[in-house]
Amino acid sequence: MAITNQIHFRNLRGDIFGGVTAAIVSLPLALAFGVASGAGAVAGLYGAVCVGFFAALFGGTPTLISEPTGPMTVVITTIIASLTAANPENGLAMAFTVVMLAGIFQILFGIFKLGKYTADCE
Question: For 72-86, what is each residue's pLDDT tens digit?
Answer without folding.
Answer: 777 888 888 899 999
